[in-house]
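Whiteboard transcription, Tuesday session. T.W. wrote the structure tokens on the left side:
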């Protein structure tokens, strides 16, 4: 678990904290600085603006993400000069379920929390731009959707730069049911997002970077028919010696999944 310190009083705070429990300062994560910060209201600078406290970047002005003010669903901040109401992480989500449904709202908030954790990891690795002017498609974009009556079920996966997640995965009971049905003992929200981000970055770090030969030397030949490989995996299960060669049984299904599982 990544921990931080309140830059007003020095007390330990956490990635999802919104208030320091020691000095009561408002806290927010600053994507452009990749850190947590203590903030104080700055009504002299403008409505809804906050001024950073502490010795690092003192006086810098921010707004709280619109999803914080509206849904209590985000603790990221937006630089005051930005034209955006949403923080850079929330802007990556392009499609949402019907948030008038309390269950969808509750599940979406949990998924966004996991997505912010992934954002932090990718930013620390230098894979996710943090400048507020960066276009959303500079990193993965997201669609968090719910099954609808009479419509095909939403399938979690990655396609064309967008990671789709069925919001039912945020329901503990439903996720446990799927975990048992699909023999995936480590099925978690953050694991799902990390896995699918692996598919996103395979396109950029392997395919688009002309690293296919190096990839195949480690993970195998991705030209193996993907649909057939997955069908055989679910019908027959993983090879008995998968643990000698892969990080999970699912990783043995296809080289793409082998790569993606190393991200989870």
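and on the right, the sequence the group agreed on:
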């Amino acid at each position: 678990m990544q921990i931080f310190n309140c830059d007003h009083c020095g007390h330990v705070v956490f990635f999802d904290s919104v208030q320091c429990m020691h000095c009561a300062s408002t806290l927010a994560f600053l994507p452009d600085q990749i850190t947590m910060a203590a903030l104080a209201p700055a009504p002299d600078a403008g409505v809804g603006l906050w001024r950073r406290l502490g010795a690092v970047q003192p006086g810098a002005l921010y707004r709280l993400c619109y999803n914080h003010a509206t849904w209590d669903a985000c603790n990221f901040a937006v630089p005051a000069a930005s034209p955006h109401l949403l923080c850079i992480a929330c802007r990556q989500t392009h499609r949402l379920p019907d948030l008038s449904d309390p269950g969808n709202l509750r599940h979406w908030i949990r998924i966004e929390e996991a997505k912010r954790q992934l954002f932090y990891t990718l930013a620390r690795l230098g894979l996710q731009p943090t400048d507020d002017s960066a276009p959303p498609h500079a990193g993965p974009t997201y669609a968090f959707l719910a099954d609808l009556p009479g419509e095909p079920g939403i399938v979690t996966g990655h396609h064309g730069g967008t990671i789709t997640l069925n919001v039912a995965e945020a329901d503990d009971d439903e996720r446990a049911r799927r975990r048992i049905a699909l023999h995936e003992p480590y099925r978690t929200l953050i694991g799902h997002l990390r896995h699918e981000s692996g598919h996103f970055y395979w396109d950029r770090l392997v395919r688009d970077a002309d690293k296919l030969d190096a990839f195949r030397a480690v993970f195998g030949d991705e030209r193996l028919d993907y649909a057939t490989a997955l069908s055989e995996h679910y019908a027959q299960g993983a090879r008995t010696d998968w643990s000698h060669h892969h990080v999970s049984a699912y990783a043995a299904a296809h080289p793409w999944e082998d790569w993606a599982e190393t991200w989870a």
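Someone added at the bottom: The two ends are 16 Å apart (CA to CA).
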